[in-house]
Amino acid sequence: MGVEQENGESEKILPPIEQELADELDAKVKKYLRGEGANLEVLKDKKLRGQLSVREELYGISAKAAAKTEKWLMPSEGGYLETEGLEKTWRIKQEAIGREVDISSSRKQYDIVLPDLGPYTLDFTPSGRYVAVAGRKGHLAVVDMKDMKLIREIQVRETTRDIAFLHNELFFAAAQKKYTYIYNRDGVELHCLKEHGAVSRLQFLRNHFLLASINKYGQLHYQDITTGQMVANFRTGFGRTDVMQVNPFNGVIALGHSGGTVSMWKPTTAAPLVKMLCHPGPITAMAFHPNGHLMATSGKERKIKIWDVRKFEVIQTISGHAKTLDFSQKGLLAAASGSFVQILGDFSGSQTYSRYINHSMVKGYQIGKVLFRPYEDVLGIGHSMGWSSILIPGSGEPNFDTWLANPFETPKQRQEKEIRSLLDKLPPETIMLDPSRIGTVRPPKSREKPTKQEVEAKIEGAIDAAKNVEFKKKTKGRNKPSKRVKKRKEVIEKAKRPFFDQQMEDNPTKKKQKISQVNELPTSLQRFARKKATA
Amino acid sequence: MVDKKRKTRDDSKNSKHKTLTFKRSKGDRGKSTQKKRGGPRLPNALRKELDRVNPKNQFNSGEEDEDISSDEGNDFYEYEEGVPEEESKKNRRYDPVDNYEYELPDQFQDENVQSDDDSEYNADENNNGGLDFKRRGADHVGSDREEDDEEGHVRMLQDITGLPREAIEGKKNRRDVVVSEPYPESEYNPTRDVLDGNGRITLEDLLEGLEGKPGYSQLRKRTHQMQRKFKPLQAPLPKEVQDRLERKAAYEKSKKDITKWEPLVKRNREAPTIIFDKDIDLGFSTIGAIASEFEPRTEFEKQMASLVYDKKVMDAYKEDGARLLELNKISVEDYRDRQNHIAKMRSLLFRHEMKMKRVKNIKSKTYHRLLKKDKKKAAFREVQMDPEAAKELAMKQEYKRAEERLTLRHKNSSRWAKRILERGLNVQDEGTRAALAEQLHQHSLLTRKMNSMKDNSSSDESTDEEDDEDLAGSDEAAASKLLTKAKEKTVKVLEEDDEQPSSGVLSLPFMVRGLKKRKEAAAEEAKIYLEEYESSLKQLEDTSGVDKPKPGAISGRRVFGVPRKQTVEPSRVKLDNSSENSGSDSELDANKNIHDGLYNTNNSQDIKVKSVSLDDNAVSPRDSELKSLQNLDDIVAESGPKTTYDVAIFVSDTWKKQMGTQNDEDRSIDKSPKVTEQVTQNQDLEELGEGSGSDSEGEMVDGMLSASPNSSYKLPSQAELIREAFAGDDVEEEFTKDKEEILNEENPEPEKLISVPGWGEWTHVQKKKGLPSWMVKEHESAKRKREAALKRRKDAHLKNVIISEKLDKKAEKLLTKTLPYPFTSKEVFEQSTRMPMGPEFNPATAVGALIRPEVVKKTGVIIKPIKFEDVDPYEKSQDRKNNEPKKKHKTNRSRVRTKPVVAKS
C-alpha cells in the first residue's frame, strides 16, 4: 500500500529540489536500462510474458540500484572553462589556466625539448599513466606520467614512424624503417614482425588483441599478438596512406586515402565494409569519438568534417586545416596543424563543435601528433622539437573504472587484469559495424546454398537409384549382358549430369572474368597489364 | 357352492371382466405354451392312477406339485364350463360372448403377467379411465382362469377326500384359516400363495389386516400416492454404460476438486525461483545416529533386545566389564547337554543322509510308480486343503496353458510328427499312432480352459471336477444337490433342443415334423424324469429334515427354465463313447458324420433305455442316481482325448492350407513393394531434376573488384606533391565509377539487346518490326528487377557511400539462425537480450537475483509433494504494483518458511 502512496506522491507536486533529484535519477536509470524493454502486451505466450516481465522487473531493480550508487562510485564531475561577459574561452592562455589550478595539475603543463631526434609521436596506455614516445630518428622512451619518471629509453638508430602500446605498459610496438618490432618495457626487443613490412601507422585493438598496421604498399595487416597468428592481410588498393584510426566502439579500422575516400575494414572480409568519399582532396587526419558515433576527418582542402558514422552523413563542416585530430574521452576534438592547436567542443549538446581553446606552440615547431591523455585533462602534443603537454579543462573522464583502466594499478592488479582480459579476448569476427547485432536473429537469406555434403549425398542417392533401375527384358539380340551393362552406365551418367551442370552454373563468373581479362590484351603483352586490386 | 364361489370372487379384488379379447389372448397363450412344452401329457386314466398312488403329493409337496395339480384341475374344469358363465354375466355390463369359446390351455402358468397386472391396473385406472378396458380384460384373464382352476381343484379334492369344502379351501379363506407352512417364511421360501401364482400378496392385502387401526387411512393414502406415481422400473443400464456414467460424474467432481490447486500451481509456475526447505538442517547421518533410532519390532528382535539390554549385563558393562566374564560362565552340565544334543542331531542327519542315498539307488519300477502316486496324492490333497496351494497350481497351469497356446508344441508341429502325418497315419504302426494321439491329448489337456482357477469367477456351469468333489462328500445334502443338478441339466437340454436346422435335409417339412414329434416324445420322457427327480428330492428332504433351506429348490419358471440340460448330455456322451468303443480310429470321421445325422434318433432311444434302468432302480433311486451320474462323469473324463483327435487332424490340415496361402501371399507381397519402389525412385529423380533446375538460377557471387587504382607507387617526392595537388580533380567522378562497378558486380546489368541475325525474322518483312516483343519484355523486366535490388541497398540514398552487402560467413555464426523456442517475435527476443548479466555490469545487490537458478535446493533435501495451502489468486497482480522495499520484505518472509516455498525477488 505504501507503494501506491509513494506513486501518488510522485504524481503530486514535489518540492523543486526533490523533483530535480527524481528527474536526475530517472535519467540515470534510463541510462542503465540500456534501452527500452519490449512491449510485452503484444505477447500471446503467457508463460513467456510472465518470465520476461519478471526479468524486466529485475533489470529495473538493477538499473535503479546502479543509478543510486552512481553518485558514490562516480563522485567527481568534469570541469570546464567558464568565462564571464565578453571573455572568450579560446582567449585564455595556458599560463592563465596553470595559475589557477592546483600544483599537481599545474605540473602537467610542460614541454620536453628533444631537438635532435626529430618529430615525435606518442601513445598513452588506456589508463593514461604511461606514455611511449618515439622520435623519427629512433628515439624510443616509456615514461611514467604519474611521477614523471623515465622508465626506459632506447635508441634504435633507424627511422621510427609510429609507436603503440600493446595491452599494457609492459610491451610496445614500434614501426621502424623496414619492420615492426615489439619491445618490452625494459627495451628488450621481443619480436620482429617482418610480415608487416615498412609500416607507416600502428594501431592496437585492445579487446581483440590484434595489432593492425598499414604499410607503405597500402597493405592492411592484422596480427593476433597472443598467438602470433596473422589474422588478415589485405591489399587495400588505395595506395599509400598514413591515416589510420580504430573505431573504439566496434574495432573497425578506418583508413584515409589520398583519393579523399575513407574505407572501413574488418579482419574477416577482404573488401572494405564501407567506402565513403569524404573530401575532394587527400585525407590528412582522422579521429573517432569514444562512443563510436562520430568521426572527424580533415582534408587537404582545408576542411574538417564531422560525420555520423551510423548514418554515414556529414554533421558539420568546419573550415580549417588539421594535420592531426583527436577526440578526448569527454568528446573534445583537438585539431593541430603547424604549431597551432585548436580544441573544439560540443557544448550545446546538438553535436555542433565550436572553438573551445586555442594554443599555439613556439613558432617553427611542427606538430605531428595530438593525443588526449585518458582520465586527465591533458593533451599530449608530439612535435618536431620534442613533446609537450597542455591542460584542457573538461577533456578527460574524471571517474575511472578499475575494471577497465586503473591509473593507480599495482603490479599484482596488472597481472590479474592481463589474465582476465586474455580470458575475455574477443575473436576477430566480432568486429563489425554494429556489434549489438551479435546474438540477434540472422536476417533470412534469399536462398541458401546446399552444402557440399548435401550435394554429394544427393548425387550418391541419385546414382544408387539409377543403379537399381530394372530394365525391361528385350528381345533376344538386344538383351546381351554387354548391352545391359552399357545401358546401365548410361543411366548412371544421366543421373549424374544435372548435378555437374549445376556445379558449372554455380561458378561460371570466374571463368568469364578470366576470359575477359585474356581478351583485353594479347598474351605477349599481358605481363605489362596492370594488376587490379582484387581480393 | 355357487354362493361360495361368488363370495370368493367378491373377495378377490380383481373383478372379472370378460371381453372380446379373450379369443386373441387365447391365441397368444396358445403360442406361448406351444413353445414351452410343459410336461409330458399322460392320459387321464394314468393320471388318476398316479393320484391314487401318492395323494399326499398334492398337499405336502412343494411348489412343483401345485402346477401339476392345477393341470389336473384343468381337466376337470372342462366339464363345468357352464357354471361360471352365468356368474360372469351377473353384471351384464359387457358383451356376453366369449365365455363359450373360452378354453383353458392345457398348461397354464404365467406369473409375470399376473404380477404386472395389479400395478398396471391401477395405473391405467388413473390415467385413462375406461378406455382400455379391453386390454385390462385381457390382462385379467390369467387370474380368472386361475380362479376357475382353483375352483375345479377344490371340487376335485372334495370329491376325492370327502372332506368339507372349508377344510380344503384354506387358501381362499386366507383370513380365517391359518395354514402352517412347512418352511420358515423367507425370501427363499415364499408362501404357497405366491408360488401358486394367483395370490400375489398385494399391498392391499397387507393393508387389509390393518383396517380400523389408528393411522390406517394415512397409510392407505400414502400407498395410493405411491401407486399413482408408480412406473415400471427401467431395466438397469449395461455395465459399460453405467461405468462410463460413473466415471463421467467422478471426472466432473474431481475436475471441480482440482481447481482449488490452480492458484498454488500458478504461483509456483510464475515464480522465478522456487526454494525448497531452506532452513532444514540436514546434519550428519552417522551410523551411530541411525543405530540409536533402532527399535525392536519383531519377536526375535525383542528377544535379542531383552538379552542385550538385560539389566545385569548393562550394569556389568557399565561398571568395569569384569562381571561380564562371570556372566559368561557356563555350567558343565549345560555344556554336556549341548554337546549331546549336537551329537544326536548329527547322527540323525547322517542317518537321514544314508537313507536318502539308499532310496536314491532304488531301481524298482513299482516302487517309483507307487512313489509317484503317493506324491500326486499328496499334492492333490494339498491342493484341496490349502487354497494357497490350489491357487499356485492354478497359476502354474494357466501359465502352462498360455505357453502351450503360444508355442503349440504338442500340436504335431514337430518335424517328426509332420513327417508321420505326411506319410499318412494309416501306414503307421500302433505305437506311433498312440504316441501322436498322446501328444494331441497332451495339447488338449494343456490348452483346456480352467474355470476353477480364478477365485472370483462364478461359472454358471459347474464342471465335472466339482461334481466329483460333490460326490466325495456323500451326505444327503450332497445327494439332493446332485438331484437338483440333474434336474436342472435335463431342463436345460430340453430347452436347448429347440433350435431347428434352417437348411439342409433336416429343414425339409416332413423331417421337421418328424423331428418335432421325436422331440416332443423326448420332452415327455424328460418330464417324467423331472418328476422322478422331484419326488426323490422330496423324499430326501422329508428324511433329512426341514431345517435346511435349499437354494436349489426354488421352483417357478426360472428354475424350470434353467435346469434342463442334463439328461440328454450324458446320453450324447454315452453315444459317443459307444461308437468310439465299437469303431476303430479310422472310423472316427464317419463317426462324426453319423454323430450329426443320427443324433436326434439316438437321443430318444438312449434316454428310453436309461429311463427303464431308472425305473428298475426306483426302490432306491438315490443310489442308482448317484451311480449313474458317477459313470457319466467317468465317461466324460475318458472321452477327452478321443474327441479332440479328429479335430486336431482337421486343424493340421487347415494349417497346411494356411501355409500354402501364406506362401502365396508372401509372393504377392514381395511383388508389390518393388513396383512401388520404382515409382518412388522415379519421383525422386524428378524431384532432383526440379531441385537442380531451381538451383541453377545461379547467383553471381564473386570477389568484389575494388576501386580502380589511381595510385601508381612512387617515391614521396616532387612528383607526389604534384599528384596530391591535382588529386582532387576527378575524385568524385572516380568514386561514382567505382560505385557503379561494384553495383554491377553484385547486380549485373542485363545484356544489351542485340538483334541476332536469323533470330525472329523470316524474311525482310519482319525486319521492320524490330526486336521481338518477348525479348524486349524480358530485358525490361530484368532491368526493373535490378533497379529494385539497387533500391533495396543501404547505400541507395547515399551518393558518396558504398556499403558492402557481402555476408561475412564467420560473423554469421554469432547470430542465431532461428528464434529460440518460446519467442515468437524477433523484437522481443532482441530486447530481452539487451542487458548484460555479469557482476561487472550490475550492482552486487541485483546480480544475485538476476542469476539465481530456477530451483534452489540443498543436496540431500527431499522434495516433498506439494501440499495444499490457501493462496490468494490476486496476490501476484498486487505484487507487480508493489515497489522494492515491500518485495524485499516478502522475500525475507518466504525464506523463513520451511515448506516448499516460492521465493520472489
From TrEMBL, chain A:
Its main location: nucleus. Residues 355-435 form the BING4 C-terminal domain. Residues 473-489 have a biased composition (Basic residues). Keywords: Nucleus, Repeat, WD repeat. One of its GO terms (cellular component) is 90S preribosome. Pfam families: BING4CT (PF08149), WD40 (PF00400). InterPro entries: BING4_C_dom, WD40/YVTN_repeat-like_dom_sf, WD40_repeat_dom_sf, WD40_rpt, WDR46/Utp7. Residues 515-526 have a biased composition (Polar residues). WD repeats lie at residues 276-317. Signal peptide: none annotated. Residues 490-499 have a biased composition (Basic and acidic residues). GO terms for biological process: maturation of SSU-rRNA from tricistronic rRNA transcript (SSU-rRNA, 5.8S rRNA, LSU-rRNA). It comes from the Eukaryota. Residues 472-535 are annotated as: Disordered. The keyword Nucleus applies. It is found in: Nucleus, Nucleolus. This is BING4 C-terminal domain-containing protein. It comes from Erythroxylum novogranatense.
UniProtKB/TrEMBL annotation, chain B:
InterPro entries: SSU_processome_Utp14. Keywords: Nucleus, Phosphoprotein. Residues 15-24, 886-898 have a biased composition (Basic residues). It comes from the Eukaryota. Residues 1-14, 86-96, 132-144, 166-178, 539-550, 664-674, 872-885 have a biased composition (Basic and acidic residues). This is U3 small nucleolar RNA-associated protein 14. It is found in: Nucleus, Nucleolus. Residues 1-193, 446-473, 539-606, 656-712, 872-905 are annotated as: Disordered. One of its GO terms (cellular component) is small-subunit processome. GO terms for biological process: rRNA processing. It holds the Pfam family Utp14. Residues 62-85, 113-123, 461-473 have a biased composition (Acidic residues).
